[in-house]
Design a protein that fits this description.
The protein is 19% helix and 37% strand. A four-stranded antiparallel sheet has the order 3-2-6-7, with no helix packed on it. The longest helix has 18 residues. It is globular.
Length: 97
Amino acid sequence: MKHKMMKFFIGIIMGSNFLLAVDVTFQVDMQNEDTSNGVYLVGYWDWEFYEMSQVGGSATYGYTRSFSSSGSAYDYWFSSGSGWVDIEIITRNITIP
């Protein structure tokens, strides 16, 4: 019986991480910028290039990412291409709510 209860509690703990996830939408206005190579978000949380989607027919691009690390602070950058030479020089910061 103890073994079954332990599995139950582990399941609740693992499931609760999903419930505590926060979706954060990043947006950038790329008016007057060359977007022919795409627009990307790069974050200190994993250093991956995430392609952003154009919002309607506007010059705004967006990307939504789910975080489960409430209270953590991360640097991030926007990029006009999928390479390190394309990243903007402005470092932005977000603290996950």
